[in-house]
Structure to design on (401 residues):
């Protein structure tokens, strides 16, 4: 499950595994496959066994998340929105790779807000996600945004790889039109592949209202979730790692050639060639490498734990959730810091952002000036139109002056 919430029950999974809750006047027996036990419920409140205390480390992490998650979501959304405006409203939008960066800004913002629904219930007692319809839509969007965030990054790396290793095909393959096709195609694939989420998810009222998969479909859900883990948490990171290593190798070759051309300038043409070869990797590594490195460092721990949780049935649930909570903030930061990385690492981004802010401020100033100016009196306009001689004399006097 992509959007995981940590509750008291998550730490009691092993403890409740072999416990049967008994109560008097039993009328129904309900099997909870999540915890592997048969629980007998009656019309009266069942007698639950005492729960083990939550570890202090988990309590400290919860306290930190209580204050940090809203700040990360708000600041990350502001940075992503500014990045999207720069990438779509300025001259840099003519570059194909910038289209992928704009799409990543949208999906990162969408993930932050769909993720925030879980802490909203967990820490602030606002169970909006448990409403019928909201649960299905938010969970579906969270799955889709998670898929698109990483695969748009893969498309960006592939675009840069083609421009470096196949420069003759760059003009035909690395175009804005092709980038738009890839973006729309991946979005349509996400909608089709994750449509099952709206059917499998709902609210569960046994241990409180939570947005979880229905128990009837749990077997099918686990199979599909394992496939999703492979295509979201394993394959794209392998592709990104291999391609970014090759890009760095070619970039080092460019720098070495340009440095040797400057040290031993045999001819003016060779010097120009060295200068020309030094520009492409500079543009690539200045923005791409910091974003990719942050993505790999912040996402891989969370995805490794997710993979172990899906494929290793013998792993301890309590230990898994402890590590998930430790890796949650770095994982969430990955979707919030890209706008600030663009601002720090790219001078072109800073200039375009400054120009856009100045232009936006001038538009606001002009709109406010147009609203404050008093419209001309229609009686005066009608009088001027009825007396063209005086109007011509006025024009003559003004010209003479």
């Amino acid at each position: 499950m992509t959007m995981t919430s940590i509750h008291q029950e998550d730490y009691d999974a092993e403890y409740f595994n072999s416990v049967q809750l008994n109560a008097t006047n039993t009328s129904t027996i309900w099997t909870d496959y999540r915890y592997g036990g048969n629980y007998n419920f009656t019309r009266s409140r069942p007698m639950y066994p005492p729960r083990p205390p939550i570890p202090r480390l988990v309590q400290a992490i919860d306290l930190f998340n209580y204050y940090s998650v809203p700040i990360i979501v708000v600041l990350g959304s502001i940075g992503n929105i500014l990045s999207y405006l720069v990438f779509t409203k300025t001259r840099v939008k003519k570059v194909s790779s910038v289209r992928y960066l704009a799409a990543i800004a949208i999906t990162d913002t969408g993930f932050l807000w769909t993720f925030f629904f879980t802490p909203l219930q967990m820490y602030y007692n606002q169970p909006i996600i448990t409403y019928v319809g909201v649960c299905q839509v938010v969970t579906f969007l969270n799955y889709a945004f998670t898929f698109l965030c990483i695969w748009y990054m893969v498309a960006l790396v592939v675009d840069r790889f083609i421009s470096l290793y196949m420069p003759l095909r760059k003009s035909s393959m690395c175009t804005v039109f092709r980038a738009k096709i890839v973006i729309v195609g991946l979005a349509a694939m996400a909608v089709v592949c994750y449509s099952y989420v709206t059917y499998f998810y709902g609210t569960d009222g046994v241990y409180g209202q939570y947005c979880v998969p229905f128990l009837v479909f749990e077997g099918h859900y686990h199979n599909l979730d394992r496939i999703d883990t492979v295509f979201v948490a394993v394959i794209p990171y392998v592709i990104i790692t291999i391609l970014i290593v090759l890009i760095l190798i070619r970039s080092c070759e460019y720098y070495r050639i340009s440095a040797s051309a400057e040290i031993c300038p045999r001819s003016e043409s060779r010097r120009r060639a060295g200068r020309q070869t030094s520009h492409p990797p500079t543009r690539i590594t200045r923005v791409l490498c910091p974003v990719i490195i942050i993505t790999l460092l912040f996402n891989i721990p969370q995805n490794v734990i997710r993979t172990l949780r899906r494929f290793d049935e013998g792993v301890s649930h309590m230990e898994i959730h402890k590590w998930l909570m430790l890796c949650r903030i770095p994982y969430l930061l990955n979707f919030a810091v890209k706008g600030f990385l663009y601002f720090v690492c790219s001078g072109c981004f800073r200039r375009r952002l400054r120009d856009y802010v100045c232009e936006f401020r001038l538009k606001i100033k002009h709109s406010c000036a147009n609203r404050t100016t008093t419209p001309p009196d229609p009686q005066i306009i009608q009088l001027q139109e009825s007396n063209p001689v005086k109007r011509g004399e006025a024009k003559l006097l003004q010209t003479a002056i």
Observations:
- DSSP finds 15 helices and four strands in the chain.
- The two ends are 80 Å apart (CA to CA).
- Confidence is low (pLDDT under 50) at residues 1-49, 266-282, 389-401.
